[in-house]
Design goal:
- The protein is an alpha+beta fold.
- The protein is built from nine helices and 14 strands.
- Strands 2-6-7-1-5-4-3 form a seven-stranded antiparallel beta sheet. A five-stranded mixed beta sheet has the order 10-9-8-11-12, sandwiched between helices.
- Strand 8 and strand 9 form a beta hairpin.
- Helix 5 packs across helix 8.
- It is globular.
- The protein starts with a strand and ends in a 20-residue tail after the last helix.
- The structure holds zinc ion.
- The site of zinc ion (ZN) has 8 residues, from loops.
- Zinc ion binds next to loops.
């Protein structure tokens, strides 16, 4: 079944705002308290507390800290559930050990697992303990409501993200072949270069918005500590960051949607963001281009529309291999944007050549593992592949 998240801006009144802040605080408190219990009992008794154990401890905790009763009990239970899955991720995927939550985290949030209502007609959402909150519901949905998450950004804006199960099955993957697969090479100079020769650059407005951050940051650093002007300047920086984040998101969504709808399969290379940063010394450009978010969008959009995302490993020398004859140019430098193959004489644009190779390697890899049919398919389907 497919799950889709719908995110809307919320406009709580003063009383509701207070209630939201109470929820953020109480959930953070319960999360940290539960994490502490888990660590303690493990250290002293070598026992791992389950989510059920922790839930059972909540009533006593509420007797000790009366103010916890003011918030939705299910949100508190949900926060323990989240802690539990953080631990499971840690053990299963060796993903970082769960951290204590801080009041200073840029995003504060709490979850509402059930018993809330979304009213499209009046643009309101009804939440337990808080009541009807004005919400701009710019998009309707149909399906079963799963967990909702209320969050607050650093600039004090509120959002609700509603997870909806639409009852539809994930579509069957469409067949793909050489002609219906596109290879993508992402980089700093152009955001993405495609195997058909198309290049998409970061939009200019995004670049100028980023420059504006630098200006505002400089102004901020010149203000006096503790002054009102400093607060004002800090807020301006935060707002500009938010603007850049929104512009970037918009650009990434447009680009990923276009690529997914125009192709049956998309081939990409596993990212090495750290390597890219070192090579270019452009740490800031990372914020600008955000490839990992782009790949995340490609992945879920491919799943949603029955397309296939093929990934190849980094070991493949995609830039240095001639996509026509296969010979490798070992002395190719990062600064070489164009080069000619000494074997076959073909003139290459560095990034287009790389993206063609990414496509070829990805399709070849399918053949190599023996799941898929004929080698030289000339546009014929090569099979149904599950993204790995
Ligand atoms: Zn060649």
């Amino acid at each position: 079944m497919m799950l889709t998240a719908y995110k809307y801006r919320m406009y709580p009144d003063d009383v509701q705002r207070e209630m939201f802040l109470k929820h953020f605080g109480a959930c953070r408190f319960v999360y940290n308290w539960s994490l502490e219990q888990k660590i303690k009992t493990y250290e002293t008794d070598n026992v791992s507390l389950s989510c059920y154990d922790l839930n059972a401890m909540l009533p006593d905790l509420k007797k000790e800290f009366e103010w916890l009763k003011e918030v939705n009990a299910q949100s508190l239970q949900q926060t323990q559930k989240r802690l539990d899955s953080a631990f499971r991720r840690f053990f299963r995927e060796k993903y970082g050990f769960p951290k204590f939550k801080s009041k200073k985290n840029p995003i504060q949030s709490f979850q509402v697992p059930q018993n809330y209502i979304v009213d499209f007609d009046t643009n309101q959402v009804r939440l337990p303990k808080t009541g009807w909150v004005k919400t701009i519901i710019h998009r309707r949905f149909a399906g079963i409501l799963k967990t909702a998450t209320v969050s607050m950004t650093k600039t004090g804006k509120f959002f609700i993200s509603v997870l909806v199960e639409d009852g539809k099955e994930t579509p069957r993957k469409e067949l793909f072949g050489y002609d219906t697969t596109i290879g993508l090479d992402v980089g700093i100079k152009d955001f993405v270069t495609m195997s058909d020769g198309t290049k998409i650059d970061n939009p200019k407005f995004l670049r100028s918005s980023i420059k504006r951050i630098e200006v505002l940051q400089r102004r901020f650093s010149k203000t006096k500590k503790g002054s009102k002007n400093r607060d004002k300047a800090r807020r301006k920086v935060a707002l500009q960051y938010e603007k850049v984040a929104n512009q970037r998101k918009d650009f990434l969504h447009k680009t990923s949607s276009r690529i997914v709808s125009n192709n049956q399969a998309i081939a990409i290379e596993t990212l090495n963001v750290q390597g890219m940063m070192q090579n270019h010394g452009l740490a800031q450009a990372i914020g600008d281009v955000s490839w990992s978010e782009f790949f995340r969008q490609l992945k879920y959009k491919s799943e949603r529309y029955g397309k296939t995302l093929l990934k190849i490993g980094q070991f493949e020398p995609s830039s240095k291999t001639c996509s026509v004859c296969g010979s490798i140019k070992r002395d190719l430098k990062l600064s070489d944007r164009e080069w000619s193959c000494t074997e076959c004489g073909t003139c290459h644009d560095r990034d287009v050549n790389a993206s063609i190779n990414i496509k070829k390697f990805a399709l070849q890899a399918q053949n190599l593992i023996g799941v898929i049919a004929p080698r030289d398919t000339g546009g014929e389907p090569v099979g149904d592949v599950i993204d790995g």
